[in-house]
Amino acid sequence: MGSPAVEVQGVSKRFRLYHEKYTSLKERVIHAGRIPHQDLWALRDIGFDVHEGETLGILGRNGSGKSTLLKCICGVLQPTSGQVVVRGKLAGLLELGAGFQQELSGRENIYLNGSMLGLTKREVDRMFDDIVDFAELGQFIDNQVKFYSSGMYVRLGFAVAVNVDPDVLVIDEVLAVGDERFQRKCMERVKQFQREGRTILFVSHAPDLVRNLCDRAVVLADGEMVGMGAPGEAVRLFRERLLEAGDVLGAHEVEDALDVASEETPALAEGSDLIEPAGVGLAPAPVAAAAASATSDPAGAATVAGAATLAGAASGLIQGAEVRTRSRRDDSRPVRLVEVSCVLPAASTRRYLLPGEPLTIRVAFESTRAVTGVVFQLDIRNDEGLGLFSTDTEALGVPCDVQPGPSTFEFRLESVPLLDGAYDVNLGVQTSSGLSDWREPACRFEVMNPGRSTGAVAIPVQAALVGSGALAAATDGLALPADETVVR
Amino acid sequence: MLTGEGSIATRPKTTRVVSAHTSVLARLKEIWRARELLVYLVRTEIKVKYKNSVLGLLWSMVSPALTLAVYTMVFGVFLKNGMPNFVIYLFSGLLLWNFFSTGILTATGVVVNNAGLVKKVSFPREILALAAIGSAGVFFFFQACVMVIFMVALQWAPAWPLLYLVLVAVVPTLVLSCALGILLAAVNVYMRDTQHLVTVLVGSAWFWACPIVYSFQETLAPRFGADGLGWVYFLNPLTILVMTYQRVLYGRLTVHSTQPTHALLHILPHWPVTTYLWGDGVVLVFALGLFYVAMGVFGRLAGNFAEEL
């Protein structure tokens, strides 16, 4: 390990928010000394070390100061007090292709960008082919960058940054760019960096990515470091914070933070060699959701369409100020979870599921008043924390209006095509004023696979020698017992 | 394939400290480390400037030539100042002046104009201002070539033994441009009028305060001299530098007018070479002092560039 690659020592950063910005001489003179402003501490006394070869995640929701912290580490911003010591060459990916000159060709931009990252011409010469290969630009390398598609632009940006042989790589939520294949390639490169013992600082509000990639993680909230530790621990802390702040978060933001998982799954699946990504949700199980009060059959099995959108990296500064000034009202969290249970189809005979069996997740909850537009969120993970399936009643198109007092709600999964393992079910309730309650884990279930296939997903399969008839055929896969009725 | 021979853990590393206060010396070191970037930025600036124009780099020669033509027509032909080969006199001063003025004019807006870069990429920001001066330096070189062509065409010999003064005078000009460029670039981020103010001041007032299109000795010295105020004129650091160039390239202290009177014109003062050397030296010392101050101010202000832009 040796000495830390990055030392963050008591870093604070104050932003001055001017209600009106006076940048002309006349205005400065007129308003000299009494320009109305508000101090906003984007960071308050942050201190930690990043060891050499370590991958450190920085978790925090929008406006928590994570990007400001990264900018201080990169040297784009100077901290108001405290300092950052960086040992070795640092390549920052604050924004892909940030240093590009529109009028220059890709080739010229590689040299320009390389020299910005502190390389000599000879060093760039040596890496040039790797960069062009990685960016997959081919003959376009001599075209002006302004004619590039956004994909090409971003690829070139990433290619330069990761090929310049940095000691410390700083990535600010830029991995979610480019097409799926390029994302995977980026992720591979990040993993290669980890194997090579480079230090990586990684900012995300996607907990799964942090859990998957990082050795440790720091959690920021409102500019303060609320914790640092193993990724699982940090993610838990992050979620708790998110819940605390739930009453002031917009619904979109919560969704954003919780559901980024589905956006990131391709990369994750690739990383853990589990399965090839198949669309947005892993193992797209048909699911029916219905409020217990609803009598008619809900619109059958609704397949979840990817609704997750990545957050615009819009600065949460102003919002952060609002967050602090707005008071929390209990009234904004009317719906509380009482009990969440997994109802197995054959609970009397065994305490586990067979692959492909149906599963009902029963949610007992309480409401202090009548609330319309309640959204129940379901999130299933394996024991490594990998998100397997997430959905919510909004995505399923099931409106839920709850009455005051206790009620019950059910997610009825028609089929759980998973193989051996223990699975966590997380459950959230959201109202128009924000996240109302969240349990992680809310309940667990286990799946036992009677067959001999291995992996994560139960895929019905038939194997046969073609042409030799049915004699050699064998079947394995979903064991749907005919004697047990599927709850509908 | 990336690691080369040394492993990541063992290879030598430079340490960089990001904090609110960095010394001028530390900043200078950072600039030195990023010198290659400076070269690239200068090249970019020049390339981008003429990227989509037909004449391209030729413009850097055409535009001063046009300026020269206009001034020569106005002063030489219509106002009849009577100076033989006035265009050489004019060009000697303009050469140095253009270097100075284009340098600081571009440098003033350079941080604001590169907001995208400043907000997202970390490098010593002074480099941007220096690159502006650097590209002005390249144009200075091109214009010097045009000057040589003019002198050959007009068969006008410079003061050969004093030729080294061309280099002596260009150093203080360079340092002064860098100092002002850095200072103004930083101030302009906080007060955007700086750009306009500089354009007006440098473009007209300062230009006419220098003996470029007129001769100090011929026009102003008699009046100033009578009041004993000649020294005021030399408070302008550019004056002595411009005169050094004229001393070398125009080369004549007195000439006979081309007008029918053939009167004797006193173009430059009868100073020994040491006066020019001393004058340029004093400006250099002043410029170095200003440079230090500019670096200090820039260092103070640079920390908040990213949030001000």
List keywords for this structure.
heterodimer; A: 488 residues; alpha+beta; Rossmann fold; Coagulation Factor XIII, Chain A, domain 1; 6-stranded mixed β-sheet; 5-stranded antiparallel β-sheet; B: 309 residues; mainly alpha; two-stranded antiparallel sheet; 13 helices; 4% strand; elongated; disordered N terminus
Would you kindly provide a written description of the structure presented here, covering whatever features stand out?
- The complex is a heterodimer of chains A (488) and B (309).
- Chain A has 488 residues and is α+β, with helices and mostly antiparallel strands.
- Chain A folds into 2 domains: 6-254, P-loop containing nucleotide triphosphate hydrolases (Rossmann fold), CATH 3.40.50; 283-304 and 332-463, Coagulation Factor XIII, Chain A, domain 1 (Distorted Sandwich).
- Chain A has helices at 25-30, 66-74, 106-116, 121-135, 150-163, 180-195, 207-213, 231-244, 251-271, 317-325, 393-396; strands spanning 6-18, 37-50, 55-59, 81-87, 90-93, 168-172, 199-204, 216-221, 224-229, 287-291, 335-343, 359-367, 371-382, 387-392, 400-402, 405-413, 421-431, 434-447, 461-463, 474-476.
- Chain A has a 6-stranded mixed sheet with strand order 5-6-7-3-8-9, with helices on both faces. In chain A, strands 13, 14, 15, 17 and 18 form a 5-stranded antiparallel sheet that branches.
- In chain A, helix 6 (180-195) links the parallel strand 6 (168-172) and strand 7.
- In chain A, helix 4 (121-135) crosses helix 5 (150-163).
- The longest helix of chain A is centred in the middle third of the chain and has 21 residues, at 251-271.
- Chain B contains 13 helices and 3 strands, in the order βαααααααααααββαα.
- In chain B, helix 3 (59-78) crosses helix 6, helix 4 (86-113) runs parallel beside helix 7 (165-190) and helix 7 packs parallel to helix 12.
- Chain B has 309 residues and is mainly alpha-helical.
- The longest helix of chain B is centred in the C-terminal third of the chain and has 30 residues, at 273-302.
- Chain B has helices at 24-33, 35-49, 59-78, 86-113, 115-120, 126-153, 165-190, 193-209, 216-227, 230-233, 237-249, 273-302, 305-308; strands spanning 15-19, 254-256, 264-266.
- Classes of the chains: A alpha+beta (488), B mainly alpha (309).
- The interface between A and B is large, with 53 and 46 residues.
